[in-house]
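Final report, Chapter 2: Outcomes

The project's central promise was a pipeline that accepts a single protein chain and returns its three-dimensional structure in a standardized token representation, suitable for archiving and comparison. That pipeline is now operational. To close this chapter, we reproduce one record exactly as it appears in the project archive, with the input sequence first and the structure output second.
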Amino acid sequence: MKKTVVLGVLFILPLVVYLFFASGVTNFGKLPTLNPRIDWSEGSDASALEGKISLIIFLGNAVSENKGYLFNFNQKIYKRFSEFEDFQTVLVSTSDQEVVANEVLAELAMITDVSRYRMVFVSTERVQELFEGLKSPYILDSNFSSPYVFISDKEGALRGRNDDEDEGFKYAYDMRSVAELNNKMEDDMKIVLAEYRLALKKNNANNP
């Protein structure tokens, strides 16, 4: 009996492991591009997304009101990926929120390294322009804020899902839902980072 169990483990376990990693190739293939170029082409914030895998959050003129959502995001996503050099989180707020935003960052600094957060303070009109530049189906609320966080790659393209089981096309991730951050956004961030790691390995192999 023991020999049968041992032989079963020796032959079946490698097959299970192979199938797991084979399916992973598909899962970690490439996260779809939903907008090839986010339109942030004007103003001092135009270069905010260049050369970085950026997570974009719109706090508008309601930083305090959205602090709870931001803390959800910080614990479930930001801390998980902030060790990567080419990663950043861009927080877009109105100019009158600078003091409040810095206070919130100071609170976050007590539990995490906030060096990967980048603040962008602009007018309400510019917040609206930046949000519309994403070309998503969502809208800002009356405070020029949104509970959604968007993924931009190093080329400034909006990434998301085109076959999401709940929404079909998924342009962003709801910070109000811990389950969505854990089960969807974390997986999608892993895919994007895996893409760049694979590309880097290929470049290094081609340029010894």
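Archive annotation: Residues 33-42+51-206 form a domain with the Glutaredoxin fold (CATH 3.40.30.10).
This record, like all others produced under the grant, will remain available to the consortium after the project formally closes.
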